[in-house]
Amino acid sequence: MPANTPPSPSPSRTPERTPASATAPASAPPSTGGRIAALDVLRGLAIIGTLASNIWIFTAPGGPAEWISGGMTDAEPVQRALQALSNGKFLGLLTLLFGVGLELQYRSMVRRGMPWPGRYALRAGILFVEGLVHYVLVFEFDVLMGYAIASLVAAYLIGRSDRVVRAWGGVLAGLFVAAIAGATALMVATGGSGATSAGGTRAADATTMSTASWFDQVLLRLEHMAVFRIELILIVPSATVLFLVGSRLVRAGLFTTTEDGARLRRRLAWVGLGAGIPLNALTAWAGPDWFLVDRYLVPPLVAVGILALGTTLVARAKSRPGLLRRGVEGVGRTALSCYVLQNVLASALCYDWGLGLAGGGPWQAVALWAGISLALMILAPLWLRRWPRGPIELLMHRVYDARRR
Predict the structure, then answer these.
(1) From residue 266, how far is each of 247, 262, 307, 308, 397 by CA, in Å?
(2) Would the pLDDT of 165 be above 80?
(3) Per-residue exposure over 89-125, b if at least 16 CB sit within 10 Å of its own CB, e if not
(4) What is the pTM of this model?
């Protein structure tokens, strides 16, 4: 997935300040083949968890058009409870890990004496095109386009001084929180939960909310791109902030095996999970008017806790990884390909142009999620026996290398 993509050079500019951590070797949790194992495991968990959040969109009888016009508010209690378990948390984790990847890429460039961000604009552009193709052909709620834009902003900030990063990160975070709080206050005051789906209703009215034709779905995405892609307004600033947070967690020693690193992980786990889970339960219980807070503000706090706890558990693991961990780790190493593949599989299973399994109730949705996740955990390790990266990652690197030459 994107968090594992190396940087791309753009206009040359040497880092304003090279942190000591960028050049000094740090003790890290157990790694395999030069990779930090915790990152691959957590990235795989994030990909599978993101599907747990998106599976409800695929299983809505009319697909995404119906889901955004009513599925967010009309879910039965069991479905709401299951949605609350994954909503926003694993996307937040994936975003943090992307930021971790950016920091590791920055360090690699500094160690080799190369300018940063160099040609990163090219790599971000390739990722944006991949996201656009994924949006048009597969899934209305693609995150790659937003990641590409946010990563370009974050790449230019990561190499700056801590003071500059804190200032820009604080401003972006403050504006984002204020916007979410203001929109939520307006919705609560006016009872405007339906406003969150007004655009989706217009998109749904433009079609019969049928998923019988893949080509018609493509045309719907193109015709109503402004509706389906409006989430980019929220994804770009929030992702930029979380990318910077992920970068700074690396510099703070989150992935080291020192006592300071262990202490930091314990604190983040207690704060992220101890405070984040109750807050998330409260916002989920508060109702659909709190949807924005429940998806974009509280889940990143939980994601930080998951990141810290997951890193600790992987670092403490003494025995040889079992089948389950190897499967999740394989998904993490081919994250970008698995992200696209899981959406392709879910579309083929749920939409009427495929097997038409949508609308079977919450437990069928859980079964579909489990089946697709199992398929990814089997296919990814098998692919990695022969190739070092996932198929889309290989294509991305070949395009980038060709442009570099």
Answers:
(1) 18, 6, 11, 7, 37
(2) yes
(3) bbbbbbbbbbbbbbbbbbbebbeeeebbbbbbbbbbb
(4) 0.87
